[in-house]
C-alpha cells in the first residue's frame, strides 16, 4: 500500500471503474486526500439486482445516498421503493435550488447538476399518514410474518400455522384480525373440539396466548392495516408516461411505536413479489430496486424460520430482476448468510467511541477486499457525504475499493411541502382503487352467520354461502370457484388448454335457494379436494387420482410461499 504512488492508485481506480453499459454515477474518488474528478466511481445498472448495503453511523449521509441513487434509477426507467423513515424523502417530488456551496461541490466531482422533480407515489401503512392506504389480508400475510409481529415463540408460531392450515382447508378466508380471532375461537369451542383434535398440537393455552396478542395488535391500531382492498405489489413496478421509473415512497410517521410491523411488512412486499414475478435471468437493468432502511429491525430477535425465509428470498429474488439494498449502521446488523449475498457496498463513516464500536469497525474492515487505503483510518475520518465503495463490475468481480465524494441529489434533501404531498395523493390513480376500506364476506361472517357489509366499489371477495365448518354450502358460488380453479390447474400446472367453460351469467345470478346442495366438509373433504375431483372428471378416470392429489396440494400447501404468504390473486 505504501509503495504505490498517487498516480498508480489513480490508474488502478480509473481502470477498475471503466464500464461499458449503463451505470449509476456515485461520485469521484479521493486519493491521498485529494479529490480526482477524472476518477469517477460507478455502479453498473445491470448489477443492481446483485443487492447491496448502505451503512454508516447516524448523520453520515446514508439517506442522502439512497435519495441520490433513487433519482438516477428513476431516470434510467427503473421503479424504486423507498421507506421514508424520517419523513424527508418526499423531497423527491420537489426540485432543489442551487447555491454557491452546492455548485462548488458538484463542479469538484464533475457533476452536471440541475434541479428537477421525479415521479413519486406516496403510500401509508393502513392509511397512517398522508399517502394512499396500503392493506394486506391476514391470509396473504401468512403465519410466519404474523408470528413475527406478535413476537410468538417457535411453538406458538407452529400452532398459528396449523390455524392457517385449517382456514385454508375449509375455505375460511382470513381477511382481517376479527376473522383470525373467529377461527381460533371456533377451534377452542365445543363445536370445534373435533376439528381441533384433528389438527393436533394446538392447545387451548396456546390459542389463548395468540388471542391475547391479537387484542394487543388491535389496541395498537393495527387492525387498519389488515383488510381489503389488498395492495397489489405489481403497482410498485410502474413507470411514468415519460418512461421514468415511479418512486414509491412509503410514509412511516409512527415507526418508533410499530417497528416490527414496518420491517415485517417490507418482507411481505418482497415475498409477494417473489411469488408473482417470473424468472428473468440477467437483465440490462432491474425491474425494481428496494431500499430497506433501518434494516436491523428485520433481524432483531428474529425466529429461525424468519431468518431462513429472508435468506432464501434475498438469494432467489435476484433472478426475478429485483435488487435489494439494506440500509443500516454496520454490516454486523445483517446476518452473515444475508450479508454474503450483498455484492455492492457503500460504507459511510463509522465512529469508534467505545470498545464495541472498535469491534464493529474491525469487523467492517474485514468485509472489504484488499485495497490501497488504510480502511480503519479512512472509515473513522471520512466526512459527511463521503463513503468507501466497492461494487460488482460487469464481469462479476469486485471493483477496487474507493473513498468517494458522493453526488448531490437534484431534488430537495428534505420533506416536500405537505400541500404538495396531499395534492399528489389526491391525483393518484391508486387512491380510487385502495382509498376506501371494504369488509367482504369472510371467516367471521361464515362462522357467526352474519352478513358482510361491503363499503365501497372494491368490494367483491367471497360469495356468501361458501363452505364453513359445520355449516351448509351453497353450491352455485362454490361450483364457480371450483370450475375457475380447475381451469387454472389445467392451464398453469398441467400445461394444456382447459375444457371447462367459464361460468355463465345465469349461474352467477343463481340464488342460494336455486343452488344444488353440497356436502359438509369433514376431515377428508375440503374445497381443494373437490377441485381435484372435478378436474379428474374433466380429464378422464385414469387421471382422477392424480388430479385430486394436485388439487389437494394446491389448496393446502402450494398457495403459500416461502414466508407462508398467500395472495388472492394467486388463488384465482
TrEMBL record:
GO terms assigned for molecular function: helicase activity
The keyword Nucleus appears for this protein: no
Highest taxon listed in the record's lineage: Bacteria
Biased composition annotated in UniProt, kind: Gly residues: 530-543
Residue ranges with Low complexity bias: 464-478
Occurrences of domain Helicase HerA-like C-terminal (ranges): 36-454
Matching Pfam families: HerA_C
Keywords for this protein: ATP-binding, Helicase, Hydrolase, Nucleotide-binding
Region named Disordered: 451-478, 491-572
Coiled-coil ranges per UniProt: none
SUPFAM superfamilies cross-referenced by the UniProt entry: P-loop containing nucleoside triphosphate hydrolases (SSF52540)
PANTHER family in the cross-refs: SLR6007 PROTEIN, UNCHARACTERIZED PROTEIN YJGR-RELATED
Protein name per its UniProtKB record: DNA helicase HerA-like ATPase
Amino acid at each position: 500500500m505504501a509503495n504505490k504512488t498517487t498516480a498508480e492508485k489513480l490508474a488502478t481506480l480509473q481502470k477498475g471503474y471503466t464500464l461499458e453499459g449503463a451505470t449509476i454515477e456515485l461520485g469521484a474518488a479521493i486519493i491521498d486526500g485529494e479529490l480526482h474528478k477524472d476518477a469517477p466511481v460507478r455502479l453498473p445498472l445491470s448489477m443492481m439486482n446483485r443487492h447491496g448495503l448502505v451503512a454508516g453511523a447516524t448523520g453520515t449521509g446514508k439517506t442522502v445516498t439512497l435519495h441520490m441513487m433513487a433519482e438516477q434509477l428513476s431516470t434510467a426507467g427503473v421503479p424504486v421503493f423507498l421507506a421514508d423513515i424520517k419523513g424527508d424523502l418526499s423531497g423527491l417530488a420537489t426540485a432543489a435550488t442551487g447555491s454557491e456551496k452546492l455548485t462548488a461541490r458538484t463542479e469538484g466531482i464533475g457533476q452536471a447538476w440541475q434541479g428537477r422533480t421525479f415521479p413519486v407515489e406516496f403510500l401509508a401503512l393502513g392509511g397512517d399518514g398522508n399517502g394512499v392506504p396500503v392493506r394486506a389480508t391476514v391470509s396473504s400475510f401468512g403465519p410466519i410474518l404474523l408470528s413475527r409481529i406478535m413476537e410468538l415463540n417457535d411453538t406458538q408460531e407452529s400452532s398459528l400455522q396449523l390455524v392457517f392450515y385449517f382456514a385454508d382447508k375449509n375455505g375460511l378466508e382470513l381477511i382481517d384480525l376479527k376473522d383470525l380471532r373467529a377461527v381460533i375461537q371456533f377451534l377452542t369451542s365445543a363445536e370445534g373440539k373435533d376439528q381441533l383434535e384433528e389438527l393436533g398440537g394446538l392447545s387451548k393455552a396456546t390459542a389463548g396466548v395468540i388471542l391475547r396478542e391479537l387484542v394487543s395488535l388491535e389496541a395498537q391500531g393495527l387492525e387498519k392495516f389488515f383488510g381489503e382492498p389488498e395492495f397489489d405489489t405489481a403497482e410498485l413496478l410502474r413507470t411514468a408516461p415519460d418512461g421514468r421509473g415511479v418512486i414509491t415512497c412509503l410514509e412511516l410517521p409512527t415507526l418508533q411505536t410499530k417497528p416490527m410491523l414496518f420491517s415485517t411488512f417490507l418482507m411481505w412486499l418482497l415475498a409477494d413479489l417473489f411469488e408473482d414475478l417470473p424468472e428473468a435471468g440477467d437483465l440490462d437493468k432491474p425491474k425494481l430496486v428496494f431500499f430497506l432502511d433501518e434494516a436491523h429491525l428485520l433481524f432483531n430477535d428474529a425466529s429461525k424460520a424468519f431468518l431462513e425465509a429472508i435468506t432464501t428470498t434475498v438469494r432467489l429474488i435476484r433472478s426475478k430482476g429485483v435488487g435489494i439494498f439494506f440500509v443500516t449502521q454496520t454490516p454486523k446488523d445483517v446476518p452473515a448468510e444475508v450479508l454474503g449475498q450483498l455484492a455492492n457496498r457503500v460504507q459511510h463513516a463509522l465512529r469508534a467511541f467505545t470498545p464495541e464500536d472498535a469491534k464493529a469497525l474491525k469487523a467492517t474492515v474485514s468485509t472489504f477486499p484488499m485495497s490501497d487505503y488504510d480502511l480503519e483510518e479512512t472509515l473513522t475520518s471520512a466526512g459527511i457525504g463521503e463513503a468507501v465503495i466497492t461494487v460488482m463490475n460487469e464481469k462479476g468481480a469486485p471493483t477496487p475499493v474507493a473513498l468517494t465524494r458522493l453526488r448531490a441529489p437534484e431534488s430537495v434533501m428534505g420533506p416536500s411541502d405537505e400541500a404538495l404531498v396531499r395534492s399528489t395523493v389526491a391525483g393518484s390513480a391508486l387512491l380510487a382503487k385502495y382509498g376506501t376500506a371494504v369488509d367482504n364476506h369472510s371467516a367471521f361472517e361464515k362462522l357467526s352467520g352474519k352478513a358482510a357489509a361491503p363499503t365501497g366499489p372494491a368490494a367483491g371477495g367471497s360469495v356468501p354461502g361458501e363452505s364453513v365448518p359445520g355449516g351448509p354450502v351453497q353450491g352455485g358460488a362454490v361450483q364457480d370457484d371450483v370450475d375457475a380453479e380447475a381451469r387454472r390447474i389445467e392451464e398453469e400446472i398441467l400445461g394444456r388448454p382447459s375444457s371447462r367453460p367459464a361460468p355463465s351469467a345465469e349461474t352467477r345470478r343463481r340464488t342460494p335457494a336455486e343452488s344444488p346442495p353440497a356436502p359438509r366438509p369433514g376431515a377428508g373433504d375440503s374445497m381443494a379436494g373437490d377441485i381435484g375431483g372435478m378436474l379428474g372428471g374433466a380429464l378422464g378416470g385414469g387421471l382422477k387420482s392424480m388430479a385430486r392429489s394436485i388439487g389437494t396440494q394446491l389448496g393446502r400447501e402450494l398457495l403459500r410461499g416461502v414466508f407462508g404468504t398467500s395472495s388472492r390473486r394467486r388463488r384465482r
